[in-house]
Automatic annotation (TrEMBL):
The keyword Cell membrane applies. It comes from the Bacteria. Its main location: membrane. It comes from Acetobacterium malicum. It is found in: Cell membrane. The chain crosses the membrane at residues 21-40, 225-248, 269-295, 307-328, 340-364, 390-414. This is ABC-2 type transporter transmembrane domain-containing protein. Signal peptide: none annotated. It is a multi-pass membrane protein. The keyword Transmembrane helix applies. Residues 19-406 form the ABC-2 type transporter transmembrane domain. Keywords: Cell membrane, Membrane, Transmembrane, Transmembrane helix.
Length: 419
């Protein structure tokens, strides 16, 4: 054990004399905390391609944009916020022709909705607006037509399809209300089979896409976490390079001989290097824990302790990977080039800069091999109230470390055989 502590103490003295190492350990967690407080434009973006989901928006002035052109984007002002208005919105979303965004936080009069629609015409990709008045359900149950309005924002042929589907469903509701003698309970029972059919479609789409449905605020929070993780990943990777540089120098300066002649085992040597990784990641996570409450005043969607837990696990995986690469390459400059390339490619593949749930299936599946992706997945699961997140993430981190520690041991053994 004395040899173990001596190796850790000596190696840390070397690391703390390196200004590059200190800059990475201190500055990148601060940068990461700053990215968590980043104020994004109030823009709603899609993080899934599920055709059967109504996406609720929390800010009436949100500008809605999308790069897809297969569905007409429709904004619904649902002032009724009733069972019948919700059923209409679900029917439109369930058609697969329209992407539905619904605002139902407060009552908005028709003139205000019309003015807001005109104002957002050049700022968003909304094709049409459906205005549902406050007395929509009451009017239907009184024999009326609901008095809703459709406003066309763009010259799109699919607006005719929207008007046709709305009118068809309103006619169905009127006939159903008449057949049930305008009894609300009986009407709700009659609509039950349609709701069950749409639910089955929704479940099937979620299973195939393996995606979560997030609100616009949760999308923003997930994006900020992605940017933060990208900065931290750089720090973890390059700190690993500094640790592997010590291993390479010990090999080149024949320190291996002196260490192993002192009866220190390969296991002790590998564990000492893992201890350096653990302490380095702990320092970075500690600095992040100190500066985040000072720099971040906005809610980033998950408990602060959970965020630190995810960061710590990621740091162990990424830093260990970097040490393995540096050990096997046996050249600090080449290791630097390699981990920089890994940083760029892995962040893109993991979807830290943009959502990948609508990407090709091979991309989505390949991203699950990248530790950063699991941080995003775990974060979004926590946002939506999923259970078993910590056990899942801990198991994944453990598997990564087991494989990477085996790689580190192989690298050390190869280096030992050279002497």
């Amino acid at each position: 054990m004395n040899g173990f502590f001596t190796m850790v103490k000596t190696n840390f003295k070397l690391l703390f004399r390196n200004k590059g190492y200190l800059c990475l350990v201190i500055l990148l967690p601060i940068l990461s905390a700053g990215l968590l407080s980043l104020q994004l434009d109030e823009t709603v973006t899609m993080k899934d391609d599920t055709s059967y989901v109504v996406q609720n928006i929390e800010d009436r002035d949100d500008n809605i944009t999308s790069i897809e052109n297969t569905k007409l984007l429709v904004k619904i002002y649902d002032n009724s916020n009733s069972e019948l208005s919700n059923d209409l919105a679900q029917d439109l979303a369930g058609s697969g022709i329209f992407r539905i965004f619904r605002y139902n936080q407060e009552v908005v009069d028709l003139a205000t909705a019309r003015a807001a629609s005109i104002d957002s015409a050049g700022k968003s990709n909304i094709g049409a607006v459906v205005y549902i008045p406050e007395n929509f359900e009451t009017d239907i149950l009184s024999g009326g037509s609901g008095n809703l309005s459709i406003m066309e924002i763009t010259d799109d042929g699919r607006n005719d399809l929207l008007a046709s589907q709305v009118n068809t469903y309103i006619s169905f509701m009127m006939q159903a209300a008449d057949s049930t003698n305008y009894d609300k309970t009986a009407l709700a029972s009659m609509l039950g089979e349609l709701k069950e059919s749409r639910l089955n479609k929704k479940i099937e789409a979620v299973e195939v896409g393996n995606s979560l449905t997030l609100t616009s605020q949760q999308n923003h929070q997930s994006t900020r976490i992605g940017y933060s993780i990208a900065a931290l990943t750089m720090g973890f990777l390059f700190c690993g390079v500094f640790i592997s540089d010590i291993i390479v120098k010990e090999k080149n300066n024949k320190v291996y001989n002196r260490i192993f002649l002192s009866k220190a085992s390969i296991l002790n040597y590998v564990v000492a290097k893992m201890a350096m990784i653990l302490l380095t990641v702990a320092i970075q996570t500690g600095i992040l824990a100190l500066v985040t409450p000072i720099m971040v005043s906005t809610d980033f969607g998950i408990p602060f302790g959970s965020y630190l837990f995810l960061v710590f696990g990621l740091g162990l995986c990424i830093s260990t990977l970097s040490v393995v690469i540096g050990t096997l390459v046996s050249n600090t400059m080449n290791a630097t080039y390699t981990v920089f390339a890994i940083w760029i490619v892995s962040n893109i593949m993991a979807g830290l800069y943009f959502p990948i749930t609508s990407a090709a299936q091979w991309w989505v599946k390949a991203s699950l091999l990248i530790p950063q992706r699991w941080v995003i997945v775990a974060s979004e699961m926590l946002m939506t109230g999923e259970t078993g997140v910590y056990a899942m993430y801990g198991l994944i981190v453990g598997c990564y470390l087991l494989i990477l520690m085996a790689g580190t041991s192989i690298g050390v053994m190869v280096g030992k055989k050279d002497y």
